[in-house]
Amino acid sequence: MKISNALLSCLAITFTPLTLAHDFWLEPTQFQYDDASPIAVQFKVGHKDDINHWNLTWDKIVALRSYSSTGVVDMAAGVIPKSNLLPGMAKSTSLSAGSYVVGFESYHSVSVLKADQFNDYAKKEGLKEIVEYRANKGLEGYSGEELYSRKAKAIVQVGETLTDNVTKPIGHTLEIVPLSHPLKLGDDSSLTVQVLFKGEPLKDALIDSVPLKNATHEAQSFLTDDNGKATFTFKETGAVKLNVVWGVPLKSNIKADFETYFSSLTFAVASTKE
Question: Are 23 and 47 in contact (CB under 8 A)?
Answer without folding.
Answer: yes
